[in-house]
Design a protein that fits this description.
Order of helices and strands: HHHH
Keywords: DNA-binding, Transcription, Transcription regulation
CATH superfamily: lambda repressor-like DNA-binding domains
Radius of gyration: 10 Å
Pfam families: HTH_3
CATH topology: 434 Repressor (Amino-terminal Domain)
Protein name: DNA-binding XRE family transcriptional regulator
Shape: globular
Helix content: 55-70%
GO molecular function: DNA binding; DNA-binding transcription factor activity
Strand content: under 5%
Length: 68
């Protein structure tokens, strides 16, 4: 499993723990709703700006998105 897949699984895990739909998280992070599923599947090499938006939307620190 590569880093993109690990990152995507972490986003999905945190999203589900918070009871958020993909659409709701995308709205909170101000990203396109069709972009989030590709992140969660590990298909995207996301920018640090998107990582920051996701961390804020999920209420975690950026480093928490990389913890296993």
């Amino acid at each position: 499993m590569d880093i993109k897949q690990k990152f995507g699984l972490k986003i999905k895990e945190l999203r589900k723990l918070r009871g958020l739909s993909q659409e709701k998280l995308a709205n909170l992070a101000e990203i396109d709703r069709t972009y989030l599923p590709t992140i969660e599947k590990g298909e995207r090499n996301v920018s640090i700006e998107i990582i920051e938006r996701l961390a804020i939307a999920l209420g975690v620190k950026i480093k928490d998105l990389f913890d296993e």
